[in-house]
Amino acid sequence: MDGNLTVRALLAQAIEDLRGASGAPASVPLDAELLLGHALGMSRAQIRSHPETVPTDERAQRYRRLVQRRKLGEPVAYITGQREFWSLPLAVSPAVLVPRPETELLVERALSLHPQPTARVLELGTGSGAIALALASERPAWLITATDVSEEALVAARTNAATHGLQRVEFLRGSWFAPLAGRVFELVVSNPPYVAEADSALQSPALTYEPRLALAGGVDGLLCLRAIIREAPQYLERRGWLLLEHGAEQADAVARELVVRGFGHVRSHRDLAGHERMTEAQWL
């Protein structure tokens, strides 16, 4: 890449460079644009409306360094330190899983299942706080508690809560239900680790940068899901709901676990890609 290039030229070169990487994702044009905006301090709208802008050499070089990091597989969210979820910009780091668009399905179903203005809600394994904060932004009167075993993750979640003025959310450190003795909720939601330990996806560049603790779910990927299903009834009000995200091929197995445990009204829902991405069940 040469110096004194316009925004348009820098972007075109970056896209070409990223597409030349092994296993380049379909998101290359978007990734390149997001990184350019981050490096230059420009919005995507500004990039598109001022393509003839010539950045300083320092900013252009910074952009090239960011592109190389992405080329090696580092997620854009970790490079920029931010990811949007439910229209909320969230600070993220390698201490937390990058929030995925498909996880918004959990938020949609929670809001649909409990339209009342008040509720006691629990999120297990909150990470960046994405799900809990999305719910808090939609239902300001809900009493939301979120747990995580990682103190680093809780620091990120509390930071995001403060940024968006959603400080009514209670964050507690502990594994799943451990910090919640004697408490019950109308809704329990979770996006737990559900990738099988032998799954080659864990070795892919897309996942090697993310915390394995938030991804690997035992030999068959169901270890954490089973643990949550087993314990959840102790923390659910009668007729309360449990909502779980899981892998695209795990819906039947999760549904069986829920039925055996005594849950009713078990239903799976598909994400925008058509995958059975989450299952809900009611404690009767």
Describe the protein's architecture and organization.
By secondary structure, this protein is an alpha/beta fold. It has helices spanning 7-19, 28-40, 44-49, 57-71, 76-80, 104-113, 130-138, 151-163, 205-208, 223-231, 251-261, and strands at residues 82-85, 88-91, 120-124, 143-148, 170-173, 185-190, 236-245, 263-270, 276-283. The protein has a seven-stranded mixed beta sheet with strand order 5-4-3-6-7-9-8, sandwiched between helices. The chain has a two-stranded antiparallel ribbon with strand order 1-2. Helix 1 packs across helix 2 (28-40), helix 1 (7-19) packs parallel to helix 4 (57-71) and helix 6 (104-113) runs parallel beside helix 7. The longest helix is centred in the N-terminal third of the chain and has 15 residues, at 57-71. It is elongated, with a radius of gyration of 21 Å. The model has no long low-confidence stretch (mean pLDDT 93).
Give a quick summary of the entry.
By secondary structure, the chain is α/β, with parallel strands linked by helices. Helices cover 38% and strands 19% of the residues.
